[in-house]
Amino acid sequence: MELREWLILQGGIAARTAAGDAGFDVRRVRDAARAGDVEIVRRRWIATGDAPPDDLAAARAGGVVACVSAARRRGWWIPPTVEERLHLRLAPKAARDGIGEGTLVHWTRAIVPVARDALLESVEDTLAHVARCLGTEEALVVWESAIRTERLDLDALRRVRWPSLAARACADAAGSQADSGLETMVVSRVRGWGVLVRQQVVIAGRPVDLLIGARLVTQCDGWQFHSSSAQRSADIAHDAELRLRGYTVLRFSYAQIVHDWPLVERTLQRAIAPASTYSDSRPARETRRNASFSEHRGRMFRVTRRIPSSARGAARTHGAARTRGGAHAGQRGRGAAHAGTPGAASDRADDGCHAPAGTWHPAFGQGRARPATPATRRAAARTCRCRR
Questions:
Q1: Do 5 and 107 form a contact (C-beta atoms < 8 A)?
Q2: Which residues is 47 bridged to in the sheet?
Q3: Three-state secondary structure readout of the chain
């Protein structure tokens, strides 16, 4: 086998060490280069004229294909708004010769090392460069596409020590539920409105792309999953079933989401406006927490209102006297009358305060120390007979 044929099987470019391992010594490599069959690049690489342009440019610059260029090479979905430009990664102190015109170079250290003869950076380095190079929404679209394509684990991604805050934010925000980049774009924009958005919720036997609030179903129709006649018929039948069950169904195409977002935004806002759609947008946990807090406040106010006005007036006098040191007349036990409060003693002579010393009472709050938790305040109120 000739050297050129072997290089074509290797993808058009290979390291000279790999050629030596395959049986092509230095003399054969030089003879093929003099004949014009191959090209020697930076003494480390051998390439043919049919080599991929990105790999050849990376070999001439002494770096690796990085960022958006590496994402395209791996088959990740790239938003159409991202500029098609070659991205390379070089070490911070690497030589600058051999860098082609219009090439964007990332002068960074690798998060995950790759082989010496590799021309493509690792998945983690690609994600880190995408997070810093693109906008927030575009980077999130690429990240979730990488999660689907590479079958990445979210917990493992979040354990990586990312070199930038943008990469850390993408790792925290990225999910694995989106089926397409269109769905990621819509979710990231709608969630910015403060509306509850759930993905891939199964309704009527099939998952829906987005469920906004309680009754608004939004479908993002890309060409990959909604192009055939059978898929279109299944979508129409599912939409009919959803409408019969009381859901509002909206479908948007690739062209509408990517090139006419203002129309999509206005349509979604008009659908969210009715109270029946937005009423269940808050999570149930938040609703239960607010209800529990309101119930607690109402219970505390009801305990205070049950105390008669005469008892509250006597309690203030009793608290002041206790602060001065004259709390109870003669004893502290059960049934002792309040000292210094003739009105209270004649009205409720057998209703002494049984709250333990040092606790707070809704009536005797001025004369007793306030505890640390609401539970101890309620316990102190229950032990006193003044409110019965």
A1: no
A2: 13, 39
A3: CCHHHHHHHCCCEEEHHHHHHCCCCHHHHHHHHHCCCCEEECCCEEECCCCCHHHHHHHHHCCEECHHHHHHHHCCCCCCCCCCCCEEEECCCCCCCCCCCCCEEEECCCCCCCCCCCCECCHHHHHHHHHHHCCHHHHHHHHHHHHHHHCCCHHHHHHCCCCCHHHHHHHHHCCCCCCCHHHHHHHHHHHHHCCCEEEEEEECCEEEEEEECCCEEEEEECCCCCCCHHHHHHHHHHHHHHHHCCCEEEEEEHHHHHHCHHHHHHHHHHHHCCHHHHCCCCCHHHHHHHHHHHHHHHHHHHHHHCCCHHHHHHHHHHHHHHHHCCCECCCCCCCCCECCCHHHHHHCCCCCCCCCCCCCCCCCCCCCCCCCCHHHHHHHHHHCHHHC
Query: pTM score > 0.70 for this model?
Result: no
Dist CA 305 CA 294 (whole Å): 17
pLDDT of residue 335: 41
10-residue mean pLDDT profile of the chain (388 residues): values are: 88 91 90 90 90 93 95 94 93 88 93 91 96 94 94 94 95 90 92 90 92 92 69 90 94 92 94 60 45 45 44 48 43 41 39 48 48 62 54
In the chain, the amino acid numbered 168 is: R
* pLDDT of res. 376: 64
Tokens representing 222 are: 């890309």
How many residues are given for the chain?
388
334-339-344-350 Cα dihedral, nearest 10 degrees:
20
Selection from 276, 207, 283, 282 nearest residue 247 by Cα = 276
CB 241 within 8 A of CB 204: yes
Structure tokens at 381: 């109120």
Place of tokens 């927030």: 136
Tell me the Cα Rg of the chain: 36
Name which of 177, 264, 259 is nearest 218 in CA terms: 264
| 12 contacts 52 by C-beta, under 8 angstroms | yes
- CB contact burial 326-336 (16+ within 10 A = b; e otherwise): ebbeeeeeeeb
